[in-house]
């Protein structure tokens, strides 16, 4: 029998204190789309980095068509026939598409020749790209194309894709899948990493499920249900967040004609955004990363000032107020970037509790910090939100993503906000922490607060939000009730087709 | 061509000489910053180059050996910075300052036996009849070889950064070190090499100052030239040809200011000699106030430490 | 093979130990340097670090000098450390020091020869104001035009030095000085003299100000919200904005604070130890203070100790110069090395050094 394209045999990778991969064994055949399934932190990324030569495993071996394969650098992997599309793109904003592609190749042809080939290959695979455009100006979907074309130009046998759809609209996902199926028809193999189950069921014929760094299941995903896959991945039956239906109350947050210029060169400015959130309501804002999410959060938190009347909190204009003045009035935020934005990585949890809790928790008197009060507040957050840490003296960066996120969200919720704005509250968080965070947001809304949930995870929005609006190119669509909304409709909204659809606005 | 007591042709010819040291240092620093590293130790590397070039030239009697020695000394100084910031993950601002403080002390120590000595002369290039062309010949064809070397450096760095693969890799490392690492490029190695190149250029610039421009060794003789070179990189928006333009503008100001001093205006010398520094500040203000452009031009990872996990 | 691995939390032990290790390493390499210069390294090190304090022959003169030299270093370094912690790099303290001294001298010369107890306090205010003003230039250019404060503050040192030269040779020159450059001697004008408070201790008003600054900075950083904001802005600028810190305000405050302290240091120096405005009365304290700030780990108490240590190297250096003929520049090199070693060993507080065997994977394959 012909040996498989790539065979992993007992791969183990140990980091100090963490076993990232333990005794991983599976095969990838020619012309196969193989799914690698697992939660955040299950060890998927470490494993593919080992295949791509970025990480050297401690034990085990790999065989490429039956021959030992142990890449020490990505260049070695590439010359063998392995190519990889990264989850966080390995692109350079201030360089053009052709230069970016050339940087990912080991022996690139001269730029002019390369540009012609980019145009040709990108059209063949239905992913048109202009080689002379600056990458910083491209949308997330287009940036992914650059990565894919970069790989395809090297004619790989195995294409690794790490969470490729997390930045795409449903329509863009369709285009991508068409390309991937075309590649499979050409006999190429794809290792497809995701935690999105529906995608895997529609695309892949084999799946290997990882949990805590170990293989816990192998299956044909087409024969499994999304639920059975999920339980294999999580290892327990999932707790679905629940809430009682409640009548929304008065309008707490009203944003009218909000336009804010982005502070960064490649950012997206907000263009005349309108939204209205009532007490007891969760207002979901979907959209692909880089469409103005950071700017919207900054404008609402007070980091980016705007016209006074463009943001009204319970009827009071707050657009010109800074973050602390808004906090005093009850408008609280939890930004996406945990380390460096929501929390200071090298500071203790006590200091991080002070970071946003100074005013509302009375941690500062006449400019002087009450450190024991700050520690009490931090400990309260740790206790109430089940943050796993040795104590409040620990630096924020020492916590896992899920625990730090629970701390950040808990810190805001315990300050009894009247309006809470969260951006990507469960990104990179394990399933049980994600469920706890979603439940906490539901409980908060239940208690009468208005919640704005900005997320790229559509499932999350559909699960807990009451309304859905799409952010596209800095513009926010009119909201629609989540109930009865289909994926196709959402896709159109995310693509910007549904703006100005006033008759369904609530 | 004379305006008042100033001879414009002589002025232009001498501004090229005055600009050459800062141009060399600035081109070197430009490459360093393009690789994403901010080395504030230019002044220290320059003065180390100035003293070692001078000392070697005097001892061996050969200015060429002096220049080579200065290049090596500058690169070695830069290597200290490279090891501190790239291997030991030290703060770049602090390490650059340390380099300057150390360089000033080190050069004073080495140079104490060389004060008041005249170095061996560096010959001017012979362009034959070309140098006799009126005006143009005097401006363009009556310099020492290093003036032309500095121009070649500008052209070479421009070509290298924009047209070659290794130049592209260097820019990629400076633009986004995480991406470059993910693609398998050796971020640290590229940066250390760039830092050493920057040191070599600064060292050569320093030696030009002590062996040709002045030519003499005095303590602290770079007098802020390294800092002006740093400002020049900002002025140039990280583009080599604009660094040339900027260097010649500064050279012009320095020469003009010296000429006015010599002309014996009834204006105190001290105020005139402030002008290069004040004008540098003014230029920095103008360049950085157009914010959008400045942030686009600056390398994305400039000044950030890189530590690969795993 | 050696490999660095980031610690989950910074190591407290190494944080305290690195300055000591750096001093030890500098002594070792410095000893080699002295050896290379043909001096007995043990004698040189003893002359620098031991004799100024304990030798029966020199201590009587040297000991008071310790406070005289440490005073300005500590005063300036405390100011700088606030900005450094916030990621705001004022490296032009030398210029602010000079301008502070010139402003204070102007006040004294204005009142000369009238005796008035208010002259000295007024000079302190003028010194602080002068330094503050000079530091406001980079501060305002930074906040208004986003201009790099490192380059501007440094370039202004050269401008200040030219101004000082002009002052000493022309507009502040002593009319009774027989044409020599330099101003009147402020120690001979009782209203402006910054004399020793306790005889033979070196304790003058500048030293008192330095101690007050240490206590003030300690309280600010440990207890006050502003100190927290300073640290936050330095460690995580985005988080600081999220916490409501106004970056422009922080730039103005920290540059202004460090400028005022540097200006005060200049005032105390020119009216006391330096006696008069001369062309080179500034002894590079503004730059050495940068080393002091880092060696003291940007912590007020650390700076106090580091300032005393660096003062010792100045005095000991002079002693070694006098006794062994050690060049003055050797001490400058010595101080530079100290900063290098400090930065190098600093890696240990944030990273763990691990030994790994690159041969392992070859066996596995």
Task: Summarize the structure in words.
The complex is a heterotrimer of chains A (about 500), B (about 300) and C (about 375). The longest helix of chain A has 16 residues, at about 170-185. Chain A has 2 domains: about 5-235, 3-Layer(aba) Sandwich (Rossmann fold), CATH 3.40.50.300; about 250-505, P-loop containing nucleotide triphosphate hydrolases (Rossmann fold), CATH 3.40.50. Helix content of chain A is about 30%, strand content about 25%. Mean pLDDT of chain A is about 85; it is low at about 500-505. Chain A is globular and about 75 Å long. Chain A is an alpha/beta fold and about 500 residues long. Chain B has 13 helices and 2 strands. A two-stranded antiparallel ribbon of chain B has the order 1-2. In chain B, helix 2 runs antiparallel to helix 3. The mean pLDDT of chain B is about 90. Chain C has about 375 residues and is an all-alpha fold. Chain C has one domain (about 40-325): Orthogonal Bundle (ABC transporter involved in vitamin B12 uptake, BtuC), CATH 1.10.3470. Chain C has helices spanning about 10-35, 40-50, 50-55, 60-85, 95-110, 120-145, 150-170, 205-225, 225-235, 235-240, 245-270, 285-295, 300-325, 330-345, 345-350, 360-365; strands at about 1-5, 350-355. Chain C starts with a strand and ends with a helix. The interface between A and C is medium-sized, with 41 and 26 residues.
